[in-house]
Amino acid sequence: MTATGTARPGRGWLLRLVLTFSFAQGAVSMARPAVSYRALALGADERAIGVITAVYALLPLLAAVPLGRRTDHGRCAPLLVVGVALISGGCALSGLAGSLPVMAAWSGVMGLGHLCFVIGAQSIVARRSAPEDRDRNFGHFTIGASLGQLIGPVAAGLVISERDGRMAPTSAAALLVSGAVAALSYASLWRLEQRTRAVTPGAADRTAGPPVPVRGILRTRGVPAGIFMSLAVLSATDILTAYLPVIGEDRAIAPTTIGLLLSLRAAATIACRLVMTPMIRWLGRTALMAGSCALAGLLCGGLVLPVPVAGLAAMLAALGFCLGVGQPLSMTTVVQAAPDRARSTALALRLTGNRLGQVAAPAGAGLLAGLAGTAAPFVLLGALLLASAGLAARTGQAPGGPAVPSRGVRSGRRPRCAARRDSPG
Questions:
Q1: How many CA atoms lie within 13 A of 294 on its CB side?
Q2: CB 4 within 8 A of CB 197
Q3: Contacts of 126 (CB under 8 A, 6+ apart)
Q4: What is the pTM of this model?
Q5: Which residues are registered as beta bridge partners of 410?
Q6: Ordered DSSP codes for 17-40
Q7: Residue 231 in contact with residue 355, Cβ under 8 Å?
Q8: Could you read off the pLDDT of 120-141 as tens digits, one per residue?
Q9: Residue 64 burial (CB < 10 Å; 0-12/13-18/19+)?
Q10: pLDDT digit string, tens, across residues 6-49
Q11: pLDDT tens track for 197-226
């Protein structure tokens, strides 16, 4: 893969990528609670919900690094095309499934499609963004995910009804609709990847050579902290989506209200990402990462309290704002720390950590829920987020990052990257 010149590209590609991500993530966010409700209608208990949620991440766990290796030396856009097809098919076929094992299998296909899409999309952002723009561009990119997470649960709640034993057919209808929503991603899936240009002097030296060993990438300062923070934040979002309906059933909260609560969390995440750059300038990257994870951990633990719906809404709004920090800053941390010719692989390792969390955390949550009740998964999330905060505070800023721990002063390290606007993801 060759590098591009130094001219700053326009940002129309980023807007189209955000729109594409909104449809794809909206479909997944609509499907995930619908899968939980349909599984409950088919007789699943808390442990079965945890297993089905974990299967969603199982295929991606095995495929992430090979896909990242391929993307380091090839195009990114085909992964988006394949990813949308798998998401759409997995959502729709989950709705047609008549048993829990078949539903779990199609949930895994949906998860593989989401992985393909995200690896391709994140690599495009890494390649097309100047180093000093990565925090902003990754923040705006993840707004697409938050928009999908805002609309998807509301749509699922509006379609699904538990009255008169209708949960099975209405949850199936929600999954079919989510498959159609995913297919709408193709409307904005064009010209997202730059055409190859002439090689910038010195760029070939940074991208040529054998693949960087995975162990070497993982030993790079900043990469483990970014991976673990992303794992903790995504696990929190995932278990919230899967287990808030279970809490709603226990507390007699209607599915429509649960959908609104999940969307409120997503709306708060969007608000966070819109003000990401000022917060970095004010607090510094390390303090922002550590503080947001610590507060999110405390809020997750607080969700087990028997508060009224209004109190639950306030806690979820604050939690959504805190969780909005982790994903974009973990992407930038990993990209800035990784070797130039292994950035897609580093992002894939980050996604591998995400999927490992999505396998282990829901399975552990399901086991804990079966033993100690539905409050246990949220205590587990709180512990994960607090551990992430401690790791972020201890590790600090990875070498080459665009910000230092001081209040918003940009780092001048690694100026050689500034001349390269389209480095390998």
A1: 11
A2: yes
A3: 134, 331, 335, 343, 344, 347, 423, 425
A4: 0.70
A5: 403
A6: HHHHHHHHHHHHHHHHHHHHHHHH
A7: no
A8: 888 888 888 887 777 788 888 8
A9: buried
A10: 334 457 888 889 899 999 999 998 998 888 888 888 888 777 88
A11: 434 444 444 445 566 777 777 777 778 888
* Alpha carbons 136 and 129: distance in angstroms, whole number: 9
Q: Which CA distances in Å does 267 have to 44, 80, 322, 349?
A: 30, 25, 12, 28
Neighbour-count burial for 161-185, b at 16+ CB within 10 Å, e otherwise: bbeeeebbebbbbbbbbbbebbbbb
Using a pLDDT cut of 90, give the percent of the chain over it: 13
Query: Which residue in this structure is represented by tokens 């899936």?
Result: 189
Q: Name the DSSP class of 403.
A: B
DSSP per residue, 145-213: HHHHHHHHHHHHHHH---GGG-HHHHHHHHHHHHHHHHHGGGGG-SS-SPPP-PPPTTHHHHH-SSPPP
Say whether pLDDT at 398 is over 60.
no
Render pLDDT for 68-108 as a digit per residue (tens, 0 to 9): 877 777 787 888 999 999 999 999 998 888 788 898 899 88
* 3-class DSSP state of 412: coil
* 162: nearest Cα among 38, 28, 29: 38
Q: How many CB atoms lie within 10 A of CB 190?
A: 11
Q: Enter the tokens of residue 82.
A: 């394949």
The maximal CA–CA distance of the chain, rounded, in angstroms, is 69
